[in-house]
Amino acid sequence: MRAAILLAVAASCGAQSAPDRVIQSDADIGNLAFSVDGSTLAGNCRDGKVRLWDARSGALKRTIPREQGDNSVTLPSPADILGSVGSEGIRIWDLQSGELKRRLSSVPKRIRGLAFSPDRKLLAGSGRTSDTGSEETVRLWDAAGKERFAAPAGLGGTSAMALSPDGGTLVAASYDTNVRAFNTRNGELLRLIEELPVAMFAIVFSPDGKYLATAGADRTIYLWDTKTWKLSRKLTGQPEMIQSMDFSPDGRRILTGGFNDITNQHPVSIILWDVGSGKALRTLPAPHAVRAVAFSPDGRFAATGCQKEISLWTLPAAEAR
Amino acid sequence: MKRNELTRREMVENCIVRGFLVAGVPMSASNLFALWQDGHKQAGKPTPTEVLGPFFKKGAPNSSNLRAPGDPGFPLRVAGKVFNTRGERVQGAQIDIWQADHAGRYDVQGYRYRTKILTESAAEYTLETVLPGHYSDRPAQHIHYLITAPGHRPLITQVYFATDPWFEGDPEKNYNKRSLVGNRELVRPVKLFEEGKPHAEVSFDICLERS
Lengths: 321, 211
Fold this sequence. Notes:
The complex is a heterodimer of chains A (321) and B (211).
Chain A: H1 2-12, E1 21-24, E2 29-34, E3 40-45, E4 50-54, E5 60-64, E6 70-74, E7 81-86, E8 89-94, E9 100-104, E10 111-116, E11 123-128, E12 135-141, E13 147-155, E14 158-163, E15 169-174, E16 179-183, E17 189-193, E18 200-205, E19 211-216, E20 221-225, E21 231-235, E22 241-247, E23 253-259, E24 268-274, E25 280-286, E26 290-295, E27 301-306, E28 309-314
Antiparallel strand pairs in A: 1-28, 2-3, 3-4, 4-5, 6-7, 7-8, 8-9, 10-11, 11-12, 12-13, 14-15, 15-16, 16-17, 18-19, 19-20, 20-21, 22-23, 23-24, 24-25, 26-27, 27-28
Chain B: H1 8-18, H2 29-44, E1 75-84, E2 94-99, E3 114-118, E4 124-130, E5 142-148, E6 155-161, H3 171-174, E7 187-188, E8 191-193, E9 199-203, E10 206-208
Parallel strand pairs in B: 1-9, 1-10, 6-7
Antiparallel strand pairs in B: 1-4, 2-3, 2-5, 5-6, 8-9
């Protein structure tokens, strides 16, 4: 009787107890992204390898080892390319064919993180300004590999970076808690968000580019209007710090995953948010920290990564507008 | 025009001759000078940088006492001064300090074990806290520092403790175990005081680069 009541309460809160399918990875998942057609799920794993699974069957299709000399690998969403940084400079690979598409050899060795514009023409990189010191610099290169600008980006490293859907804005979040928005044409600082008390670990633009969502250590999702760069609203209620976030393809929902403390060993919630109302639509359980969340291109499914386990969830259909 | 200035060697030699600089053990003047110069070089080096970490929080209250009555954990006093590579004391330096509690947990929602201290004319700071706990991601006990001061480059660093079991009793050999600590200099000796209220003391001076 008591169990039945608990189930009824859970259902009314939108809780979903188990995923539709679980894929076991050989290494912890760092981030996840679906291919453009949704048939492949790519995982950037913590052992430096990128793994590709069949999104329907869960079968492992390919494992891409880290190239010699590479320090870091970036997997953008959708998963069509891979970016790597290391002794060979920045290299961009076609994810399906494995072919080297572009190479930027004369880039500072200190670059660590990368971000790509949706059309893949613009490439941003972040890294320490010098070998000594704590200052960070972001840089932007165009399709020809020419550096458009280099700009100061705070202290202590870049926690997240994103380019807007139209490629016109680069946003970089710093561990010093500030977020900077740059005009990608000339590097002009459009907005310095200094009012956040803690670092933002995840930033993502809405598909129409009207909003930037930032989330991090204070368990809050901030939605910024990208026209005025003012805070539009806050989504609160995530019990844990947020480290992974995605916007649904229709821009109406947000998915977040978190971590409870630095040991990453405690159960956490994955939350599906309704952007319009700011309410949590579904709460999905995870046994440990969730480093990766991704919507499928049709918005009907979500993939979440928790240590070596990828969970695939069928999401409720969005209500008609 | 020749400037009538003493070289550093001449100055140190003068001090030795006049008895202002005395070695505790028998030592030649040239050896003493070499040691003095080594020490001077060390003093003129900026404090090594470390990672900021994910849990820095703006707006910490200004308080030198982070340990509330009844807090679990071994009491710790950290004291030092802020100077620059010219050896000048730096007034008006803002020192953000944050650490995990005795159990290795950071308070991100509040400001427990977080402070922002402004140095005054003596450029000194003192912190009453507890030895930070261990946690799996960064298993060496540490305290975070972010220091900014007008006319100087900002510095992000951390202080570690030579008594930490992580260093297995030999920080010289083990400081860089799992590439956790970038510089031996940041692993500080710990003095233990048993009498009265048992506590530990660590000295951690900070040297900033001029901008």
